[in-house]
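Researcher: Next entry in the queue.
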Amino acid sequence: MTKEPAVKGPASYFPSIEKTYGHPIDHWMTILAAMADKTHMQMVAALKTDHGMGHGHANALVAYYRAQQQ
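Model: Structure for this entry, 70 residues:
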């Protein structure tokens, strides 16, 4: 039996984010898409302020979102 490769990078936070904040990752991607004109740190700050998210989780979501937009 082959072992699945470990998830690395921002996506490694996804299970914890979904469990902690009660929403699927698609929910957060939709929120980030609505503020696509903001800088990375403005997006992080909005998740922290408006949604009570911790810095590490917010940063991981924003990093993942922005990587997908390239």
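Model: Residues 11-68 form one domain.
Researcher: Noted, moving on.
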